[in-house]
Design goal:
It contains 13 helices and 12 strands. The strands form 2 sheets. A 6-stranded mixed β-sheet has the order 2-1-3-11-4-12. The protein is globular, with a radius of gyration of 22 Å. The protein is of the alpha/beta class and 334 residues long. Strand 1, helix 2 and strand 2 form a beta-alpha-beta unit.
Length: 334
């Protein structure tokens, strides 16, 4: 009898086969408030038979060398990091936008500058290779301010390697002005280290959109997995948009490990939005300005959305999950 039961069990196991292993997708991400939905993907990935292996980097520019050597499959960063990587031969595609906004230019409390035009003769700091780098230069140009890393221009640029150091430099008055991300800029304000001079959204870049990028290898060689990744992304983002309390709890407790207050989270998200979308032409405007300012040291700057912006999987996922585009998303960039 026991032998017969064992034989039946073995037959059933042979018919059903082993449980399908989850497909591992390696994610490069950054630690910002408006990147929270990207981190949340790993919490619900099992629903799509995926496992998200998330690795956080100090800044976007650090992700792409790992992507170039096939250590990262998808990445969240500023548009400039993706442009620089593509322009230097990294085979990646923009498959969605995941956040917008998230930049402020701050001055030390006793600076007295009311506009950016008032900061001539000052030291201005930013993290090299981030969205804030491009936004700062575009805003300086708009205000007719010249810049250099050496004395002699209207402002002297000081570059840092991470965003926490920017706040410390401002607090210690080592620099006069910083261009900062969220929630770090909100934390600088709430701690009394600085005040907002301007949100730099009035340049040709407009409000900056962050791209979700994917390797060409995954997009072309593993289309079924790529499609599931986009559905996972859309569900995670839709959840954050529709359930702001859950989004706050997850970002504050899981991403920032309790080191971000409720007020700072909410204030930072007043200056950023979760989204699915990438406005037409936004990546090209970014690429053109980067080339103009010499950012990214690109060998072959991208030319046109058709070359590397592929939103077909996104649109299909949005349709299947009933996700609607943000009505504030421009149909084209300014």
């Amino acid at each position: 009898m026991l032998k017969r039961l064992a034989a039946v069990a073995a037959a059933l196991a042979a018919i059903s086969g082993p449980a399908a292993a989850q497909d591992v997708v390696r994610l490069g991400n950054l630690k910002f408030a408006h990147y929270g939905a990207i981190s949340y993907m790993k919490e619900i990935a099992g629903k799509y038979n995926l496992k998200i292996d998330e690795k956080q980097f100090a800044k976007g520019a650090d992700i792409y060398p790992a992507m170039a050597v096939d250590q990262i499959d998808i990445a969240a960063s500023g548009a400039d990091g993706a442009v620089a990587a593509r322009g230097n031969g990294v085979k990646l595609l923009v498959v969605a936008g995941f956040a917008n906004g998230g930049v402020r230019i701050l001055g030390r409390p006793d600076l007295g500058a009311k506009t950016l035009a008032d900061v001539k003769g000052k030291k201005v700091a930013v993290v090299r290779g981030g969205t804030q780098d491009l936004m700062l230069l575009a805003e300086l140009e708009k205000n007719g301010i010249t810049w250099s890393e050496r004395p002699g221009k209207d402002v002297q640029l000081v570059y840092f390697n991470n965003y926490a150091d920017l706040n410390q430099a401002l607090a210690q008055k080592y620099v006069d002005v910083i261009c900062q991300s969220e929630p770090q800029s909100t934390q600088a304000i709430s701690n009394g280290w600085g005040y907002e001079i301007v949100k730099p959204y009035d340049t040709p870049v407009g409000v900056p959109y962050r791209p979700l990028v994917m390797t060409e290898k995954m997009y072309t060689e593993k289309p079924e997995i790529a499609a599931r990744v986009l559905k996972l992304f859309v569900e995670a983002t839709k959840t954050f948009i529709e359930k702001p309390d859950l989004a706050e709890k997850y970002v504050r407790e899981t991403v920032f490990k309790g080191q971000l207050s409720s007020k700072d989270f909410r204030d930072s998200m007043e200056n950023a939005d979760y989204t699915y979308d990438m406005p037409a032409g936004h990546m090209q405007v970014t690429a053109d300005l980067m080339h103009k300012y010499g950012l990214g040291k690109m060998v072959n700057p991208p030319k046109g959305d058709a070359e590397w912006v592929k939103l077909d999987l996104l649109e299909k996922a949005k349709a299947e999950l009933g996700a609607k585009s943000d009505p504030k998303t421009p149909s084209k960039t300014n």
